Every structure is written in structure tokens, then in C-alpha cells.
Amino acid sequence: MRVTGTGHASMRIDTTAGSILCDPWVNPAYFASWFPFPDNSLLDWESLGQVDYLYVSHLHRDHFDAKHLRDFVSKDATVLLPEFPTSEMEDEFRALGFTKFLKAPNEQVVELPGGLKIMIQALTSPTDGPIGDSSLWVEHEGVRLLNQNDARPTDLSVFAELGHVHAHLLQFSGAIWYPMVYELPQAAKTAFGKQKRDRQFDRTWRYIDDLKASHVFPIAGPPCFLDDALWQFNDIHGDEGNIFPDQSVFLSEYAKVGGTNGIVLLPGSVAEVTTEGASTTHPVPVQEFFADKVAHLEEMRERKRPIIEAEKASWRHPEVDVLGEMKRRIEPLLDESIYLAKGVGGPVRFDLVGYDGESVESIVVDFPGKEVRPYADEKVRYRFRMERSLIEHLLFIDEVDWVNSLFLSCRFSAARIGQYNEFVYAFFKCLSEERLQYAEGWYDEHERSTDAEDITLGDWVVQRRCPHLKADLTRFGIVDGDQLTCQLHGWRFDLPSGRCLTSVGHKVRAHRVDAETPAPAGEAVI
């Protein structure tokens, strides 16, 4: 099985039974904030795009690059579709000219012509991508590969049960706006960033240990930031709190925990994977490339500057009545929302900075009041500040997912009082009736479900499944004193009270091992 690195989470898998192109991303994403690094725009995409099968894990724009898919990927390719709850991905592909689809039943092995086998695991909570993320397992002539990319399954046993995996490709770096955009003292940002960076690596080590593949390939990050306003987010400044470590850092950190089977794929690298081992060739020596990282980034910044400036010039739409359009689009969804609106539990404020860089219009999305209105000097727990043109553009293009556009751009600042609230971001991913209804139904089913099984962790008996997204705490749970941490997403719980310390809601059921009578079960709250 030949694996060609094509940048970020993208790769081309070649076998004698067919070829699969995965997650090709080349054009800048999220308001021209994210670019693939190392740069993959100079690869021979005319040839790379001539494949038998195309797999895109989810609709995040650093995986689903519509322009590149339209221009460079053969429309004769059969699209391998995860079993997602909505038809959005298929609809997007059809709009680009694709007509051949294989809808893979979730977690079921499908045998393709020539003996090529695939299985797709779809994750379908509202917090997985925009209504879905997925992983792809491939087998041919006894060689098995798992492309986990960004996905965070609760365990990898469904893949391990199919036989030993020879190549495990997974995310290790950050892909979020936290903590960089928060209005905090730099020392606090660094501390929170270091904590997040450590959690990212801990989660990666756990996945690697679970699967025990022959070879591990760090993929799906980090992006690079070429706009001058975002340049500081690149991990080139000696900041121990930077959440975007690169592949060379992965190899160094992996070695500290005993990892010796890591393989880096640069764009153009080729790994020949067999049941006996893997041999890899690179366009340039990997160590030398990352030693010159700053020079590579500076060269990219100058080369991509016209692209960024052209994108910026397209965002202003002064003809858009922002307040009126937000009311028209968001208020009907507020009226239909039960779980998400209660979960947010208060007004969310958007401070829009005018074209002059000084004037500010403040708009509130009032979840309890079910309305969008001007800010009225009330206390808010969540506040976002950004250029008005960004919201104008979202409204102009009728964007249904402000998380997978505005927030991932990092082109804003944020402040909050109290805990992280996942419902805020879940709602702004679901600015369409189809998405909102799915998310409401998912939370309804999730919050009503019970988890009767208990396990023992240290001195505590706790419910086996994390209240957040049902991760198995026998695998991801760590107890330190009176606190439980679920390493899958880093959520923490106070065990004596059951209270979630990371977000509102999601109370855990727990009692001490030596307690005569278990504490009452904590019902999940929103």
C-alpha cells in the first residue's frame, strides 16, 4: 500500500485495486486565516486528482476544499460517503459535479472491486465537525491503514478487531481558537495554552496506545497563519503555550514517551507500507525542512499575500442590514430551540467594529428572550468582538455554520464569565432548520438517556461513560484527588458534588468507594 503525503490531513492511498484521495485541502480556509503547512499548492494536483475514490472526512473547510475539489479532482471518482445524519455532504459534492457515491453503512466493512476493503466510522454528535466527523479504515492484501484524521472516537476497538493496523494516521496538534483569542493576561493565555497542548498530546498517546499500529503518522495539523495580524499564532516564537506544535515537535514529544515508530509525511513524501514494515522517501530531508521553518513561512507569507488581500476585499457588504438580517435568520431558530437555548441560558453579545476601526455596534442574541436586538447594557456571560465586515459576509453568503468560518478564523476576541458553554458554539453551528432540528433531537435523546453502569477509579465509584460525549472512563478517565478528568476532550468534574468544572451541565454520578450509601445519581442538566 502506497501512501503519498499531500498536505495537512490529505493523502493519496494507492493499491493495485484502486486509489483513494483523502481530504485534499489547498486553498486558504476560514476567512483566509488558515493555510496548509508545509505548503502543498505546488504539487502536481492534475495527476493526484485522477483517482478511483474520494473520501472527505467532514465538512470543515480545511478538509472539504470546494474550489480544489471542483477544479482538480476527477468527477469519475466514486465518493465514499460517511453515514451522516443530514444530506449536506452529498449535496455539496453534487453541486461540484460529482455523481458517483458509495454510502458506507456505519462501522461495516465494504468490499470494493479488486479486493479493496474500506470501513467508515461516522461520529454524529453536534460537536463533531458540523454535524459529523469520521475515520476511514482501508485494507488490501493484508495491509491495513486507519486514517483517523481529526476524529475523536471514544475508543478504537472497532478497528482493532479487524486485525493489526500497519499505518495509523491521526491528529496531534491544535485546531481551535482557544485560548489565543480570549481577552486574558498573557501569563494566563500561556498557562491555558500549555495545559491544552499537553492534553492534545496525552489524547494522542492514548489513541496510539489503544491501536498499537506498526507505524504512526502525525497528520491534520498544524495550519499556518500568514496574515500579519495572525502571524503570532505560528509556533515559531518559543511560546510554550502555543497549541499548534508541528510534526517535528510531535516526533520529539513522542520519543519522550517511548515512541519510535513515527513517520512524518511532507507534501510529496511517499511511504510504501507492507505487513513487514514501511520505507519512506521525501522531497527534502524532514529534519532540515523543519529547521528552516521560519524561512519557509516567511516565503509563503510573501507569496500568499495577494491571495489574503483579495479575500479581505470581498468581505465588506455595506448594503447588508446586519441587525435586520440577524433577526430574520436567527429569531426563527431561537423560537424552535429548546435544549440549545436553555443550554446557553442568557444573552450572547457581538461587538461589531465599523470600517473606521473605532465605532462599535453591539448586538445581542437573547436566548431566553428568543430575540436578536441591540445591546441594552445588561450583563452577558459571552461576548465576541470582530470587524463588522466578517458578519456582513456571513450574512451575504447565507453561511449556516459560524463556527466553521468565523470562530475558526481566529479573527475576533472573546470574553466570558464562568465556564465554557458548549451550547453557544453548538447553536452557531446550526443556523439552518435541518441542522437545528438534528441538534435538538440529539440533545433530547442524549439528555434523557441513563447510564447505569459504574466503575471504580482510585477512591471513587463513577459512572462508566463521561456525561459529555459518552467516552469510556475506564480508558479516558483519570482521578486526581477529588477531581475526575476525561482525557478525550479534557473535561473535568468535581466528584463530591458531581459538578462539571469545564462547562455548564453534564453532571457526573459519583461516590467514594467506602461510602455506605452512594450519593444520589446526578441528572444531566442544561
UniProtKB/TrEMBL annotation:
Keywords: 2Fe-2S, Iron, Iron-sulfur, Metal-binding. InterPro entries: RibonucZ/Hydroxyglut_hydro (IPR036866), Rieske_2Fe-2S (IPR017941), Rieske_2Fe-2S_sf (IPR036922), SCP2_Rv3818 (IPR057330). Pfam families: Rieske, SCP2_Rv3818. It comes from the Bacteria. Residues 461-515 form the Rieske domain. The keyword Iron applies. PANTHER family: N-ACYL-PHOSPHATIDYLETHANOLAMINE-HYDROLYZING PHOSPHOLIPASE D. This is Rieske 2Fe-2S domain-containing protein. It comes from Micromonospora trifolii.
